[in-house]
Specification:
heterodimer, A: mainly alpha, MetI-like fold, 12 helices, B: mainly alpha, 2 domains, globular
């Protein structure tokens, strides 16, 4: 190995050894995903079951993270809350990436008035305080987890669009695109077979960071009482209960908040790590 | 001179386009409601009586074709007529917004100044020795700052400072007996109510700003003129704090402009937690009581404020950067 060209695998491994934060992020992200998938198996109790004689019990052997004012087990609700967070994160980001990539590709590839139109649209969308826009839409429609996911997706694609446009602008001038064009490939084939695959790395980074942002937004909306409907547990609406019992039951506000903080932190670490992995020049 | 005129005209055209875009999207939001906003939604709204419904229909001209509705609405918006609130006081939307705006703007400006005062030194010190102890420490802080849900931080601080230790009052912007206080006590009362909210705002934007400052500084330190200054014997501290800092601060002006929508949006959470009578609280209450004219008014005005902020940032950048000034 010494002095010889390392294999791709060895390169990645050594990169990861130098980036313990990336590993930590990956580990927590995987852990939260597993917790969400296996929530029914892992949760010690039904998340909505009210243990009437055990209201506001501090963390103990029976209830590892305590119970809330209705006697529901906090740990079980945290497991099911992870489902909401991840579900919202992934669907919202899928929507924002689908819109952002499509508009970015079109703007960067066709340029001219299409580019002008799309980028002015981006300018307009960036003018709205997105939290205002989300709240306004929620006021006109009904608050449900599906609406929340769609709205977060619809208000967060602008960064991806700008990113993909910039990538496309530079990729379309490269030789392999000229070669494809000479070989008779049409515009759509060039866009989706040649340009898109080469622009995906930064999109993956933006998507990972986007999941973190969507989780934060969802928890804030649920905290304000306009997110996930009430009996369903989400980290955000658990904090609302924690706020009502503030000064009485610290465990109701500390644990869900920690869950949000650590999950969002891990997605950010993962995203930054991926950025370094794809682009070692930008440190 | 001719170039300047062309630039200004181009900018004005861009402004007009973006403004029209803002109104189109806002208008589209009204039409999201199933049926029309005055239809079944209002029958469920106890605050909206038949008269309010009629007023809303008149305001948006909901019986007319879509383009006529938009046109009649935008003519009113251009005169800053956003209609009357549907709450019991039925006051003009604009009056209500203007009452709340100073609180939000003051707190955000205060927080932005504090953020700059803290974030700029952090970013510069981190950039002086990339990978050093301070850089790694501040990077960790930045990551935590990015991931911290501001409403959770607010809750934790509230339960410690307001409930356990009772250092700060729990909520509101002034105490009940505010009017009877002396000038000094009034100031003190206001300050103790605003400390925690302003801290939350500052903490929220600290991470992004210091990160941005760091990368901007690193970029500047790579430039040729910095090497020139170093070659002619300018010492480390003077080089960084005078030669480099001025150039590294330029992009921060743009970032300030870009951070406005986030600040206005974030005010919803902070103001509703601390029960502060600002734009965010007004908007939240409007959403909760489905006060459509007030929602629309705040949405449009929030976007216009952002647009104004961007223009101010552009002008500020032009004033601060002699290269751009000369280009005029």
């Amino acid at each position: 190995m010494r002095g010889v060209k390392k294999t791709k695998f060895a390169r990645i491994l050594s990169h990861m050894r130098k980036n313990p934060l990336f590993w930590a992020g990956l580990l927590v992200v995987a852990g939260v995903a597993l917790a969400a998938v296996f929530a029914p198996v892992l949760a010690p109790y039904d998340p909505n079951l009210r243990h009437v004689q055990y209201k506001l019990v501090p963390p103990s052997g029976l209830f590892p993270l305590g119970t809330d004012s209705l006697g529901r087990d906090v740990l079980s609700r945290m497991f099911f809350g992870a489902r909401v967070s991840l579900w919202v994160g992934f669907v919202a980001v899928s929507i924002s990436i689908a819109i952002g990539v499509t508009l970015g590709l079109l703007a960067g590839f066709f340029r001219g008035w299409i580019d002008e139109l799309i980028m002015r649209f981006v300018d307009v969308m960036l003018c709205f305080p997105s939290f205002f826009l989300i709240l306004a839409v929620v006021a006109f429609l009904d608050a449900s987890i599906v609406n929340i996911m769609v709205i977060i997706g619809l208000t967060s694609w602008m960064g991806v669009a700008r990113l993909v446009r910039a990538e496309t602008l530079s990729l379309r001038e490269r030789e392999f695109v000229a070669a494809a064009r000479l070989a008779g490939a049409g515009a759509w084939r060039i866009l989706f077979r040649h340009i898109l695959p080469n622009a995906l790395a930064p999109v993956l980074v933006a998507g990972t960071l986007g999941v973190a942002g969507a989780i934060l937004t969802e928890s804030a909306l649920s905290f304000l009482g306009i997110g996930v409907e009430i009996p369903t547990a989400s980290w955000g609406n658990m904090l609302t209960e924690g706020r009502e019992a503030m000064g009485v039951a610290w465990w109701l506000s500390v644990f869900p908040g920690m869950a949000i903080l650590i999950t969002v932190l891990s997605y950010n670490l993962l995203g930054e790590g991926l950025r370094d992995l794809f682009d070692p020049k930008a440190v | 001179m001719f170039g300047l005129l062309r630039r200004i005209l181009k900018k004005l055209f861009w402004l007009l386009l973006v403004f029209i875009g803002i109104t189109i999207i806002s208008f589209w939001v009204i039409h999201l409601a199933p049926g029309s906003p005055t239809d079944q939604e209002i029958t469920m709204n106890p605050l909206a009586d038949a008269e309010a419904r009629e007023r809303l229909e008149r305001f948006y001209g909901l019986d007319k074709p879509l383009h006529e509705q938009y046109w009649s609405w935008i003519k009113r918006i251009a005169r800053f007529d956003f209609g009357n609130s549907m709450s019991s006081d039925m006051r003009p939307v604009l009056d209500k917004i203007m009452e709340c705006l100073p609180v939000t703007v003051c707190m955000n400006v205060l927080a932005l100044i504090l953020t700059l005062l803290v974030a700029v030194p952090i970013g510069v010190l981190a950039a002086r020795k990339p990978g050093g102890l301070f850089d790694r420490g501040s990077t960790m802080f930045v990551y935590i700052g990015f991931a911290m849900p501001n409403f959770w931080l607010a809750m934790l601080l509230m339960s410690q400072f307001c409930i356990n230790w009772q250092i700060f009052p729990l909520s509101g912007i002034v105490s009940m007996d505010y009017d009877s206080l002396s000038a000094w006590d009034k100031f003190w009362d206001l300050a103790s109510h605003l400390t925690l909210p302003v801290f939350i705002y500052t903490f929220g934007s600290l991470a992004g700003m210091s990160r941005f400052m760091r990368s901007s500084m690193l970029e500047v330190l790579r430039q040729d003129y910095i090497r020139t200054a170093r070659a002619k014997g300018v010492s480390g501290a003077k080089l960084v704090w005078t030669h480099a800092l001025r150039n590294a601060l330029l992009p921060v002006i743009t970032l300030l402009g870009l951070s406005i929508p986030g600040l206005i949006g974030g005010s919803v959470i902070v103001e509703s937690i601390f029960a502060l009578p600002g734009l965010g609280q007004l908007f939240y209450d409007a959403v909760m009581s489905r006060d459509y004219p007030l929602i629309m008014g705040s949405l449009v005005l929030g976007a216009i404020l952002t647009l104004l902020g961007n223009v101010l940032a552009d002008i500020g950048y032009g004033l601060a950067d002699p290269r751009i000034r000369r280009a005029f």
